[in-house]
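Can't paste images in this forum, so I'm doing it all in text. The chain is below; anyone willing to post the predicted C-alpha cells underneath?
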Amino acid sequence: MPFDSVKEDAVWQRLCSVAEAPAPGAVMEVETGGQAVCLANVGGELAALDNICPHRLGPLGQGWIEGGAVVCPWHCWVFDVKTGVAAYPDKGQVAVFPLRVEGESVLIALPEREPQTEPSVDEENF
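Text version of the structure:
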C-alpha cells in the first residue's frame, strides 16, 4: 500500500549511501530495520518498495526495471514504483515507502509490521 504522507513520528533509517544506490534502470535488495526493501532507480529517481512479491514471495530486488516498473524475477509480475500496484490491479500490490536524501545518505521511513510469510494471491483465481 502506498504512503500518501509520512507520519510526524516516522522514524527515518539509513538505507544506503547515494553511491551504493542502484544505477538508473537497475534494482537492488537492501535490508534495514529487519526488513528487506527493493530499491529501484527509474530514470535517475529512486523508489523503495516492499521486497516481497505477493504472488509467490519472490524477491523484487533481484528483478529488473521494464517500462518504469519493477519486474519480479520469479514469475514476471510487474509493479508500478510510485503506487506499488501490480500491472493487473486486482492481482496485488506492494507497499511503497517514502525516501529522502540527506547529504550522502538515502533514508527511508518504514512502518512497524509483521513480515509476509504466505502468498496473498489466490492461486485458483490467478
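DSSP finds no helices and ten strands in the chain. The mean pLDDT is 87.
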